Amino acid sequence: MKRWPKTFLQPEALKQRLHILSALDIVLCQEEWLRRYQFEPQWDENTAFASINNGAGDDLYILFTPEGVIVKGFDHESEMSPHAREEYEVWPGIYEQVPPALLHRLDDEALTREDVTFCLWRESTDHVWKTGDIHNPQGLDDGSDFLLGMIYNSSEDYVEWAEDYYEVNVPLDVVGYAFENTSITKEMMMELNPEVDLEMAMKELQEIGFTVT
């Protein structure tokens, strides 16, 4: 195995960021199936789950467990996809060195373990993210820049995406507040989406443990 070569958030910061992105999606979009971000604080015992799905066949699953964190990404256009291989096999090196306790977490049928183009992980005792020794002499694109890039590092980047995706004006100050405080007010919810069903959105935010003040 080797160190993940790209800059990536620390586990707690990653979890918080995905929590915020999911909460913003809840306010902006009442149709769950249209949302890009999902967060479940109690996916399984002591395990939180986050996902990103762009609706075009690409997805990212992240599990926060007592053993550590595992991230599985699938870019359906990548030449490293099992669907692009004659044997329909996971690309060599992606899973072989994942700690068994973390890899086992992907056994849930909903996580489509075989649909993968990259994987990274961090055990609870690790100080860096790790990935397998991937056999990729041609330097094929595994989709990681594309998919991990959806975990926006700034409110400005999120607003740019959300305005394009939802075709609405998204107030930067409200998103900035959510990014900074991991919370939102009812007034801000109305500012984000004047047509939001406030009661329903607040119920969903409560379910994922997001603070409404």
SSE blueprint:
Layout: E1 2-3, H1 11-28, E2 37-44, E3 47-53, E4 59-65, E5 68-74, H2 100-103, E6 118-123, E7 130-131, H3 144-148, H4 155-166, H5 172-181, E8 183-184, H6 186-192, H7 198-207, E9 211-212
Parallel strand pairs: 8-9
Antiparallel strand pairs: 1-7, 2-3, 3-4, 4-5, 5-6
Helix pairs in contact: 4-5
Describe the structure.
This protein is an alpha+beta fold and 213 residues long. The protein has one domain. The chain is built from seven helices and nine strands, in the order βαββββαββαααβααβ. It is globular and about 50 Å long. The termini are far apart.
The largest pleated sheet is described as:
5 strands, antiparallel
What value does the average pLDDT take? 96
Radius of gyration: 18 Å
> For the terminal residues, how far apart are their CA atoms?
44 Å
Order of H and E elements: EHEEEEHEEHHHEHHE
Helical residue percent band? 25-40%
- What share of residues are in beta strands? 15-25%
Number of domains: 1
The structural class is alpha+beta
Give a count of the beta strands, DSSP E runs of length 2 or more: 9
Determine the number of helices (DSSP H or I, runs of at least 4 residues).
Answer: 7
- Quick one: overall form? globular
User: Which regions contain 5 or more consecutive residues with pLDDT less than 50?
Assistant: none
Describe the strand arrangement of the main beta sheet, using strand numbers. 2-3-4-5-6
